[in-house]
Amino acid sequence: MDVMFMITCGRYIRSILYLLLLISVQFGPHAVEGVWPLPQAFTSSPERYPVNSQDFYFVYGRQSAAQQGCSVLDTAFKRYFSLIFPDHNSGSHSTTRNGHNGSPADRLSWTIYLVPFCVPDNLSISAGKASLNAETVWGAVRGLETFSQLVYQDDFGSYFVNKTEIDDFPRFQFRGILLDTSRHFLPVQAILKTLDAMAYSKFNVFHWHIVDDPSFPYQSSTFPDLSSKGAFHPMTHIYTQSDVRRVISYARLWGIRVLPEFDSPGHTTSWGKGQPGLLTPCYKGGTPSGTFGPVNPALPSTYRFMARLFKEVSSVFPDSYVHLGGDEVDFHCWRSNPDVRVFMQKMGFGGDFTKLEAFYIENIVNITSALNKTSIVWQDVFDYHERVSTPQQIWDLHRIIKAGMRVLLAAQWYINHISYGQDWRNSYTEQKKLVIGGEVCMWGEYVDATNLTPRLWPRASAVAERLWSDEKQTSSVDKAFPRLQDFRCKLLRRGIQAEPLYVGHCKHEYQGI
Amino acid sequence: MDVMFMITCGRYIRSILYLLLLISVQFGPHAVEGVWPLPQAFTSSPERYPVNSQDFYFVYGRQSAAQQGCSVLDTAFKRYFSLIFPDHNSGSHSTTRNGHNGSPADRLSWTIYLVPFCVPDNLSISAGKASLNAETVWGAVRGLETFSQLVYQDDFGSYFVNKTEIDDFPRFQFRGILLDTSRHFLPVQAILKTLDAMAYSKFNVFHWHIVDDPSFPYQSSTFPDLSSKGAFHPMTHIYTQSDVRRVISYARLWGIRVLPEFDSPGHTTSWGKGQPGLLTPCYKGGTPSGTFGPVNPALPSTYRFMARLFKEVSSVFPDSYVHLGGDEVDFHCWRSNPDVRVFMQKMGFGGDFTKLEAFYIENIVNITSALNKTSIVWQDVFDYHERVSTPQQIWDLHRIIKAGMRVLLAAQWYINHISYGQDWRNSYTEQKKLVIGGEVCMWGEYVDATNLTPRLWPRASAVAERLWSDEKQTSSVDKAFPRLQDFRCKLLRRGIQAEPLYVGHCKHEYQGI
């Protein structure tokens, strides 16, 4: 079984899907624009065709398994129509046309085929025909992104697309971005905007590091005190069930999975406020010091609480994976607590607290397994100070379950870490041993909605190309530079506050101030 | 003569100005809020008075020299009313009241006195009376800022102000921010927004580094080709005369001077596009290489051009100072050019190109002196690579004119240079030998409207406190931290996209995404 549900052969739709779009065709002088991340195989010619928003329709093909009513594609058509024609003042113009008008000689038709066998997704634009073959609706969404980047405006505002042939598929199946909503609260709008930008760079996993030491913004229906006492503010700095559902369904329409992380037994200070008895009381000189450490692994009540919490989490977050954290557990408090030490003896762990941690994690993994979820945990081989000061490869799918455990390795980029100058270049050339993918981690110590977007984009896009494109074709940073500059201007044009790479300008500067 | 026109004794208004504002008074439990930058003398008590927007008016005092019609204060009253009451939905409510209603016992009155002798500006808020004494209208504007920061809301949305006594004046007279609009074009809106935020931190000089090598966005009426050929785009990436006037008059209402910089003879690549013959042709192997160096100092036409350009600049920018640049002149091209070498011989400079540079600068200074402007130039003791990679103290008023030249020293903070973590702490403790002030430099290599605001704020505010407040009272970074956090939340509340200092939250998070 793969981690990815996307691009998996024939998993969603097994029959043929045709998507036709009809636009008028003329010929003119050439201009070629790039696509970011670079497709696996890309050929284009100077031959260009005008694209007129008034005559532009997405049309489901006759033999397509998906037809109008397929919400993922219906909404994708709408979104991409606006993205392709930012100047278009849509009045009564419908972006899709019900019925199959064929493709007269003076029309460019574009088709999405969804085929039930493993061939690369393909996009073809030529004088008489433009078609997109995609195995799955998700592949079709990625193809729409590619197509939208191929359409460009000349100096007079007319839209064009060049004759193009593209075969495409991702290099890695897991292409994630982590947002940390505990160190600073991110309003739902900031998350949705990030999902937009993720789709533009073909990211497909939103790793939601939703709670941590500083705050617990997730409003649990089972344990409402967790947020009412553990959030920065019980009303304004929380994610309600409805907020979470909104994020998940919004992400789904972009082909992005939401991987929730409820990190324990460490990083749980905020949990303790709304759940007395959950955390380990620390001792000093034989008496409780009044401070608390990680979750108390010695109490049966801990596991009863976790079972109920993860039962709720499992139903709220439909993804088959759940991230259990497990990083940076400090043993000092456990060691200070006499009850924990008694438990250690009883369990035969001696003085080895890594065994106690493994016992705890194993229990939580068993809880989530019983809920038919696959667990992911952090590779806890680094300490907090290293984490905030140096970017490094740090996580994998923990080998906690000894038998039958699938190993997932992912490199990550700590993009909250900033330095002066063109630091995207490092991300671009970073060549860690990626197994099934990687993710960009935007930890929240110094990041909130005020600076999230310019810190993330276009630097995360550099990572996106490592994750999507062919390694050999994208080995030159210097060749990537003008393409990334161009892509950054596209992001600006789409309202993403992506910061500049270096001196220069975009035709349409950011006007959001 | 001072550099600053602000806070100079009796310079603007010599008689007494009273400003009264009437608000209803009650007593309640206490809460004290801070002011950033810290006033010179500040005492407040837990005694607090409710402030009700419906009953709140700014009223000019009877004996005030300024009365309704004083545009600086009239507009300041309007702006600060909205800043003090962000929730107030202003319908027909007038923020000022014509006439002098006295101060009944149940009212808090607030007066601005403008006195013709040198005493510190004073703000006093007590049960029966609230008054602001200011020597000048500009001091009154700063006092309004201070007052606006004293008003706070409780958890139920009611406004309060505490009993407070403040004596205040700036530590340094020159408190500037440099924006670079050549490496990236900054839309006028981004500049205006920066002026707003500058006023909130009591900055008073906008150093407009308007042109440089990459682009010439200033649209000159005398030489329109400079921008039509030298800007990134001749229509969309320029500052028209009207744009410049708008910036200057907007800044003036905040008590901010606009110091224009037209940097030469180096940093002029963009000038050459619209002014053929201005730059020095570089030679290679005895023939012109096709590239150009600094402005050609050997040609009389150069000085005729500069005289006409600076005549225009002098009339467009009313400030008595003009910045001539003069930094980072590379002598290679001059040295390669045979005509320049002949000129050197003729002038008796031998092989010393610093003499040629001094000759050039002296000519330009004479041009601007004849226009009744005082010149400022960069201390050209650093090379380009140092500049972008390390923050350092780098500029003073050049000692080019040997006799009678006033020396202006200013430390600066290169705030475009970013590093991970709490780098505001360095700015806060930076203790260069400041003579008349300092400025924050936001060079534009990696900054445009997408990331200008979060990179500038609240880090520049840390510098602002060094420039405004008493050195001894503000020597502790740890004491400053919670105050700066609080001030950053105030900036958010005012719509300034100021980035977080560390983990935490504000009551009103940034919602601008």
From TrEMBL, chains A, B:
Any Pfam family matching the protein: Glycohydro_20b2
UniProt-annotated location(s): Lysosome
CDD domains (alphabetical): GH20_HexA_HexB-like
Keywords, sorted A to Z: Disulfide bond, Glycoprotein, Glycosidase, Hydrolase, Lipid metabolism, Lysosome, Signal, Zymogen
GO biological process terms, semicolon-separated: carbohydrate metabolic process; ganglioside catabolic process; glycosaminoglycan metabolic process
Domain Beta-hexosaminidase eukaryotic type N-terminal: 123-150
MF (Gene Ontology): beta-N-acetylhexosaminidase activity
UniProt cross-references to InterPro entries, sorted A to Z: Beta_hexosaminidase_sua/sub, GH, Glyco_hydro_20_cat, Hex-like_dom2, HEX_eukaryotic_N
Record's catalysed reaction(s): Hydrolysis of terminal non-reducing N-acetyl-D-hexosamine residues in N-acetyl-beta-D-hexosaminides; a ganglioside GM2 + H2O = a ganglioside GM3 + N-acetyl-beta-D-galactosamine; a ganglioside GM2 (d18:1(4E)) + H2O = a ganglioside GM3 (d18:1(4E)) + N-acetyl-beta-D-galactosamine; beta-D-GalNAc-(1->4)-alpha-L-IdoA-(1->3)-beta-D-GalNAc-4-sulfate-(1->4)-alpha-L-IdoA-(1->3)-D-GalNAc-4-sulfate + H2O = alpha-L-IdoA-(1->3)-beta-D-GalNAc-4-sulfate-(1->4)-alpha-L-IdoA-(1->3)-D-GalNAc-4-sulfate + N-acetyl-D-galactosamine
EC number, UniProt record: 3.2.1.52
Active site: 328
Disulfide bonds: 70-118, 282-333, 489-506
Domain of life: Eukaryota
Statement: the UniProt record of this protein carries the keyword Signal: yes
Domain (Glycoside hydrolase family 20 catalytic) ranges: 172-422, 427-470
GO cellular component, one term: lysosome
Signal peptide positions on this chain: 1-34
Subunit relationships: There are 3 beta-hexosaminidase isozymes: isozyme A (hexosaminidase A) is a heterodimer composed of one subunit alpha and one subunit beta (chain A and B); isozyme B (hexosaminidase B) is a homodimer of two beta subunits (two chains A and B); isozyme S (hexosaminidase S) is a homodimer of two alpha subunits. The composition of the dimer (isozyme A versus isozyme S) has a significant effect on the substrate specificity of the alpha subunit active site.
Primary role: Hydrolyzes the non-reducing end N-acetyl-D-hexosamine and/or sulfated N-acetyl-D-hexosamine of glycoconjugates, such as the oligosaccharide moieties from proteins and neutral glycolipids, or from certain mucopolysaccharides. The isozyme S is as active as the isozyme A on the anionic bis-sulfated glycans, the chondroitin-6-sulfate trisaccharide (C6S-3), and the dermatan sulfate pentasaccharide, and the sulfated glycosphingolipid SM2. The isozyme B does not hydrolyze each of these substrates, however hydrolyzes efficiently neutral oligosaccharide.
Family named by the database record: Belongs to the glycosyl hydrolase 20 family.
Protein name: Beta-hexosaminidase
Source species of the chain: Sparus aurata (Gilthead sea bream)
Gene: HEXA
